[in-house]
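note to self: the first set is below, dont mix up w the second
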Amino acid sequence: MAGKLDHIKLIAFDADDTLWDCQSHFEAVEKAYCAMLSEYGDERQISTHLFETETRNMAQLGYGSKAFTLSLVENAVVVSKGQISATRLLEIQKLGRSLLELPGTPLQGVEETLRAIRSMSRYKMVVFTKGEILDQENKLLRSGLWDYFDRVEVVSDKTPRQYRELCATFGIGIDELLMVGNSFKSDIAPVLHLGGYAVHIPFEVTWAHEEVEEFDHPHLFRIKHISDLLSLLSFLR
């Protein structure tokens, strides 16, 4: 494995569920939401309707806590057939808004790994994440990790065009990019298809919208913990 990544110039890190826990907080909110709407259906029914509402709204609202909150409110009106009270809608809005205060506490080993990579002065490092810019920037600030990165890029979605623009910003070729993330759909597959390199670190929970069939690739590396990235980059011999 040593030598395969000697040419890498830029390491891009996903944020949610790669640097800190995010999805488990969304799942907790969704569970509480389903309980609030229990008179209109069971948890499976409410969640199914919510997934459909989120999917329908993504083209216009994108990703993140604010988009999710709008979908929570809209879905509540729909499943209740307009019978839900304004008071309960306000409670749902507050429930969704609580996601804007996620602690952003770094996952175990994240800060130590970032510090070790930064100390090598060999790579440019960037946070490359999708979502709502203010929400993502605030989480990064709360995490205390901002200063480890040369740049923070928040995009509406991680499309091939966005990856090409990221490389153009740093003046590198796609084959000089190493993307590190938990989502095979957003962080891994697009980079591999373009000719870049990717490190997949699965998280304990996966958002339904990010589920996709995985595949093997000569530019793909799979690790169980972010600290394994150091060995992958041949920092530890």
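second set (the one i keep forgetting abt)
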Amino acid sequence: MTDFSTIKKLFNISKPNGFANEEIQAVKNIFGNLPQVFVDYYSEFGKIQNLNHTQDSLIIPERFQYFKHDNYLIFYHENQRACVWGIHKDDLSKPNPPVYMSYDEKEWNLETETLTDFFTAMAFLQAGFALEYTAECFYEIDDEGLNFIVENYKNKGVSFKQWTEGINFYGNHDDEVIFVMSNNQIFYSSNIEKHFLELDEVLSKLGTEL
């Protein structure tokens, strides 16, 4: 089983809530091979709404028929379908393949090196809006503010290369996230009030409310 401990700690997930084998088999019937990490994620987390559908959306088994593509298994989409994420058909036999993003389903660019990295990065992005305590607005920071975050908060180790031209994630606790977008806009949240207030006390003063 894939190690999803980072996601479990972030969302305080204590028990699986995923799709049954026969539901995942319906996806296999369309695409043939499925990466092991894909199967593990759908089996363990597939039905958790706040993890998978707060901002962008995991494609559920019965909806794969509406996302057919000759070369990619499309499994995640932006909330207004401005972009989609998928796995190339030649990589479906790999246990932990790379993930690509496309705005038009014609040109595809590498988003993350592995599927595990994608699911973890997307969990951090969803957490920004889904955790119990969230910032009231985005803040725009300058380079000095960015350097402060980089120097004082731990890099979460995953990122988006393509979506909004890049998003990095930071935070010193397992239950919190600060995400920094390529345009130096930040947002933050936590599942624990104390940790959120600590973030808010510092980060709300770093930049300008948007």
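remember for set 2: The longest strand covers residues 72-77.
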